[in-house]
Design a protein that fits this description.
Largest sheet: 3 strands, antiparallel
Shape: rod-shaped
Radius of gyration: 59 Å
Helix content: 40-55%
Amino acid sequence: MPELFSLLTYLVIIVVIALVIFSSSVKVVQEYERGVIFRLGRLVGARGPGLFFLIPVLDRMVKIDLRVITLEVPPQEVITRDNVTVRVNAVLYFQVTDPGKAVTQVTDYIRATLQIAQTTLRSVLGQSELDEMLSHRESINQRLQQIIDEQTEPWGIKVNIVEVKDVELPQSMQRAMARQAEAEREKRAKIIHADGEFQASQMLADAAKVIGSEPASIQLRYLQTLTEIATERNSTIIFPVPLELLSLIPHVSSAAATLMGAGTASPPPIPRPEVRPAPAPEALPASVARVGAPAQAAPPPGFAAPPPQPGAVSPPPGTPRPPAQG
């Protein structure tokens, strides 16, 4: 009986040791995982998925997840090329393509990828201007993905997507951008309004040509306007004034000002007649005697008669001359 008990004890111990060895040598790897095997410290390779056996005590296995890892980059203080301070955060999507390199080339590939993403984000955004960062987001994302992928490729990591999530601007910059957007919208509104006025003027010019070709059309238009006004049941009557009369107003006002200035101006001074003393009676020839005026000497031959003196009265034709005095 004691021998049987000791035999059972040995059997139990052997079974337990066999189970321990079996559990340590038999490994199951999921579809999305790979097992990197080291035998006596040397890399054997990656195995899986499924069931495989390891040599107890000699082999060691490290499981690596091959699924896409989502890594959030914390907010970073970035100074852009045009000296604007912004806070930017991003998200990174990557996965392990070579499990052996991910285990042997880097200690912690997730932490190392996060540090590379932070430094690359600051350097790339620091070389860009604020407008480029806001409007050309896709090109910046592609540049970030390319740089980070080149740096993590020796670790057996493939970076699929890098997206800049949020850009936090200072309050002063937000107000300045709001004023810029408002001014841009006002500019567009004014351009659209001016374009509408230009098109309306062209249509009015075409309508004026059509109306000018038929004189009766303006009368019909006038009657139509009166009809539209009469439908509102008011007592307003509109009489159109031709625009030609309005163009004459400046000329009428200038003519009236000229007439008023001419009526108030003082007349030019009248020159006073020159008074000469009358010569002695014996010196007056009988041929040039004047009634009520001193006689003048006859001009020599070949010279025109001098003009009459101011104030001298010429006798009417047919008046007999007085006889010459001796």
